Amino acid sequence: MKLIEATKYCKICFNQIKDNSFYSLLHKDNLLCEKCFSSLKARFINFKIGNINSIAIYDYDDTIKKLIYTFKGCYDYELKDVFLNRYLTYLRIKYAGYVLVPIPSSEIDDQKRGFNHVKEMFSALKLPYIDVLRKNNNEKQSAKSSKDRLNIDNILVEQNINILYGKKVLIIDDIYTTGATMFKAIQLVKKANPKVIKVLVVAKTIDLKKR
């Protein structure tokens, strides 16, 4: 008896995914139609934070900005896997053996939306999370001036950081803007003497000076 596969629909536009692309033939977990996939324009931007090798999958352009807002601001949980979906094989190989240290978000926001958006974005990597960073308050970075965002010494703190000793650590976040929060996170993680630290973010604000 021939099994009939369920019709799949794009997680972004809700149009039917036509399994006639090369990718769809090889990957049955495809979540995006070709039009939406093409609109995302992954760039895998390599950059440094101090001496730490870092990668941003996308520019923080209008398309990605809207998609992230819909996911974490409008609580559209179904979008959680679309950001990494087509690059999972590459990312799983590249970061095999790493543990994930997420940049913490506001506990109030997590409770309101019912999930932590950073963890959910990277959950498909199937790597263990170690929560050793937390926010000392629930102030939003977006509500602060650029000057205040750079002064975060009393906002991001560590807890049980020594559990990272000797481990390969991948610090993750959704958006890299000024870099102040990530720099502070790296400083805290370094205290544990991990084997290696790397950074992976979904999107990075566009540096027009380098264009």
How many distinct domains? 2
Strand content: 15-25%
CATH architectural label of the largest domain: 3-Layer(aba) Sandwich
**CATH topology value of the largest domain:** Rossmann fold
> Termini separation (Å)?
57 Å
Task: Sum up the overall morphology in one term.
Answer: globular
Overall strand count: 7
CATH class categorisation of the largest domain: Alpha Beta
* Poorly predicted spans: none
What share of the residues lie within helices? Answer: 25-40%
Strand numbers in spatial order across the main sheet:
1-2-7-6-3
N-to-C SSE series? Answer: HHEEHHEHHEHEEHE
Using only C-alpha atoms, the radius of gyration works out to 18 Å
Instruction: Note the total helix count.
Output: 8
Backbone structural class: alpha/beta
**Biggest sheet: strands, sense, closure?**
5 strands, mixed
Descriptive account of the structure:
The chain is built from 8 helices and 7 strands, in the order H-H-E-E-H-H-E-H-H-E-H-E-E-H-E. It has helices spanning 22-26, 34-40, 62-73, 88-94, 107-113, 117-122, 146-150, 180-190, and strands at 45-49, 52-59, 98-102, 133-135, 156-158, 168-176, 196-204. It is an alpha/beta fold and 211 residues long. The strands form 2 sheets. It has a 5-stranded mixed beta sheet with strand order 1-2-7-6-3.
